[in-house]
């Protein structure tokens, strides 16, 4: 790779060299799968490290905030009033949220049945503790989830969908006429 000119009195040459260098990298990215995978892996690693660090920072601040709220009964009561009002409003204004909430509660009520419940395309998987899986739509759920939807079409490796993505894609993934197998 050629050395780029950094002299301030030669901006045209620098622009041309930069353009040539970018074109060479674009060509290599398009034609060399190993190079492309190496760049993508480095990008994913950086993004995941940044997101994980940000996630823990936010989680810690929320934990401290919740600690302050839960120590004061008056603040706790105000918090629950605001939270319940928000959830009631959300259930009225967002039909998908209501569907998601009801489906979650319904499947949760059926989890102790021996034969369980499953659709033709998905099966709900319950865990006692939050379990991290790679959601096939939104990638990894930080901290995991207790309810995952396992695709019955993708067997090896199994494809999991988080509850939020499953209900957001309900019409596409699950036929409206399809009924759960009870």
List descriptors.
6 helices; 182 residues; three-stranded antiparallel beta sheet; 2 domains; alpha+beta; two-stranded antiparallel sheet
Structural class estimated from helices and strands: alpha+beta
| Proportion in β-strands | 5-15%
Gap from first CA to last CA = 63 Å
Question: Which term fits the overall shape?
Answer: extended
Number of domains: 2
Strand order in space, largest sheet: 1-4-5
Round the mean pLDDT to the nearest integer and report it: 81
Rg, Cα atoms, Å: 25 Å
Order of helices and strands: HHHHEEEEEHH
| Relative helix content | 55-70%
Largest sheet: 3 strands, antiparallel
Uncertain runs with pLDDT below 50, 5 residues or more?
none
Counting DSSP H or I runs of 4 or more residues, the number of helices is 6
Number of strands: 5
Region (Disordered): 1-32
């Amino acid at each position: 790779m050629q050395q780029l000119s950094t002299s301030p009195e030669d901006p045209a040459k620098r622009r041309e060299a930069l353009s040539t260098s970018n074109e060479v990298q674009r060509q290599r990215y398009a034609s060399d799968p190993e190079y492309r995978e190496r760049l993508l892996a480095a990008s994913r690693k950086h993004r995941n490290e940044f997101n994980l660090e940000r996630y823990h920072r936010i989680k810690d601040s929320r934990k401290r905030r919740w600690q302050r709220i839960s120590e004061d009964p008056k603040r706790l009561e105000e918090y629950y009033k605001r939270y319940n009002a928000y959830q009631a409003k959300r259930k009225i204004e967002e039909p998908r949220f209501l569907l998601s909430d009801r489906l979650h509660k319904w499947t949760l009520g059926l989890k102790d049945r021996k034969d369980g419940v499953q659709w033709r395309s998905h099966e709900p998987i319950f865990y006692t503790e939050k379990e991290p899986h790679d959601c096939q739509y939104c990638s990894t759920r930080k901290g995991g989830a207790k309810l995952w939807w396992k695709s019955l079409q993708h067997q090896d490796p199994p494809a999991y969908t988080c509850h939020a993505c499953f209900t957001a894609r309900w019409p596409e993934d699950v036929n409206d006429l399809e009924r759960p197998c009870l």
